[in-house]
């Protein structure tokens, strides 16, 4: 058989980038061919030159659905602020969380070149005891963590992980706004995400209570999720912004502080369309929220069915939501596993202007949960999940399917 020419093989490899749906393609050297650099050619959605002005800049194009590409983009464009932990998860460079520090241990870490950057308001509300530490010596993140552990060997330290949106947020696209409902009563519901634009048609009748920023900084992703969460009704939306107009955000401490704010405001159901790694401080905060009677609904992420579970969706008693397309087929990029409790539409709009991702499925489920729970109560997470199981339309395998969960929930 005649061997294909080198040019043909190279062109075929390049063409495959645009074929696979919503899955990042990394084009490396083709076996047996020189590593040819095509003039002016770039991977779509990953421009190494353009600056990041907001979180929406991180969510442009189909490759933005892949968290690995988001992380690499952050590292390339914000190298002084963003690093990765040993497992490849994004962290704030030089920032750490410490729990249960004694006075002597605080003195020891300060002598090692760290300062208490800020105390958190989550302590009293959620029963946590943690502080944010900042490295003043600009050491590599792994080296700084070892210095902390040597300075206070009995204390517990962890990274300041960053949690990223689980869906597209291209500002050039227009999502379909929901029409006001004349049936559903107004309700209170929480959102932890980017900023929300009150001028969006789907939010025209909503009352928005903000947290986290001194000024309003709308994001496309946060607004699109909020639009599905409120769906045109006169609801009260408690919206916590973890970015405040910056490109780097979603820090663990900010997420925990947002949960504490929701607890103080007695918001029963909270939507979190963000994903990231397991973090011990976040795990304790989620556990405290569940124990206090709140219901947390979270997107399972878009790293694909073979990827490890992402958090907070994978924490016990959190309702994890996957996404399906217009034909009720699971999105190929959606996460799969025991963390999937339900699925809902993960596509906003239609055609080339459509946004997609599990981010947009979670608020459909959160909205239904909010109708079932007006105020936090003990055991609410399990009770609400059982009620939702009764409303879900089974898809996939009988019982709990790793891709569809207990079934599809419609708006």
Automatic annotation (TrEMBL):
This is S8 family serine peptidase. The active site is at 193 (charge relay system), 221 (charge relay system), 359 (charge relay system). It comes from the Bacteria. PANTHER family: CEREVISIN-RELATED (PTHR43806:SF11), PEPTIDASE S8 (PTHR43806). Belongs to the peptidase S8 family. GO terms for biological process: proteolysis. Keywords: Hydrolase, Protease, Serine protease, Signal. PROSITE patterns: SUBTILASE. GO terms for molecular function: serine-type endopeptidase activity. Residues 1-24 form the signal peptide. Residues 189-407 form the Peptidase S8/S53 domain. The keyword RNA-binding does not apply. It comes from Rhodanobacter sp. FW102-FHT14D07.
């Amino acid at each position: 058989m005649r061997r294909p020419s080198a040019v043909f093989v190279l062109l075929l490899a390049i063409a495959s980038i645009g074929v696979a749906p919503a899955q990042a393609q990394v084009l490396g050297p083709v076996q047996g061919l020189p590593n040819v650099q095509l003039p002016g050619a770039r991977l779509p959605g990953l421009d190494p030159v353009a600056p990041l002005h907001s979180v929406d800049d991180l969510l442009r194009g189909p490759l933005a659905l892949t968290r690995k590409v988001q992380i690499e983009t952050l590292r390339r464009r914000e190298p002084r602020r963003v690093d990765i932990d040993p497992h490849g998860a994004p962290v704030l460079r030089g920032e750490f969380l410490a729990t249960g520090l004694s006075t002597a241990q605080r003195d020891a870490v300060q002598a090692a070149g760290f300062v208490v950057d800020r105390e958190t308001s989550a302590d009293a509300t959620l029963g946590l005891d943690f502080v944010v530490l900042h490295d003043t010596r600009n050491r590599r993140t792994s080296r700084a963590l070892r210095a902390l552990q040597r300075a206070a060997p009995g204390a517990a330290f962890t990274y300041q992980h960053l949690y990223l949106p689980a869906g597209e947020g291209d500002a050039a696209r227009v999502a379909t706004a929901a029409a006001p409902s004349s049936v559903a009563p107004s309700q209170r519901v929480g959102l932890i995400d980017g900023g929300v634009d009150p001028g969006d048609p789907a939010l025209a009748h909503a009352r928005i209570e903000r947290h986290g920023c001194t000024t309003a900084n709308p994001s496309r992703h946060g607004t699109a999720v909020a639009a599905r969460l409120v769906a045109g009704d006169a609801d009260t939306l408690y919206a916590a912004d973890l970015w405040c107009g910056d490109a780097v955000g979603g820090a663990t401490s900010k997420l925990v502080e947002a949960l504490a704010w929701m607890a103080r405001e007695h918001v029963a159901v909270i939507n979190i369309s963000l994903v990231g790694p397991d973090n011990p401080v976040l795990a304790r905060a989620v556990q405290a929220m569940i124990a206090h009677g709140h219901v947390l609904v979270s997107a399972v992420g878009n790293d694909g069915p073979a990827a490890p579970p992402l958090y907070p969706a994978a924490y016990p008693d959190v309702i994890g939501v996957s996404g399906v397309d217009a034909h009720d087929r699971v999105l190929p990029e959606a996460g799969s596993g025991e963390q999937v409790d339900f699925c809902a539409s993960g596509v906003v709009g239609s055609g080339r202007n459509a946004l997609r991702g599990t981010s947009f499925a979670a608020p459909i489920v959160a909205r239904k949960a909010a109708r079932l729970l007006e105020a936090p109560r003990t055991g609410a997470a399990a009770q609400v999940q059982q009620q939702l199981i009764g409303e879900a339309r089974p898809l996939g395998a009988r019982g709990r399917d790793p891709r569809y969960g207990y079934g599809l929930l419609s708006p």
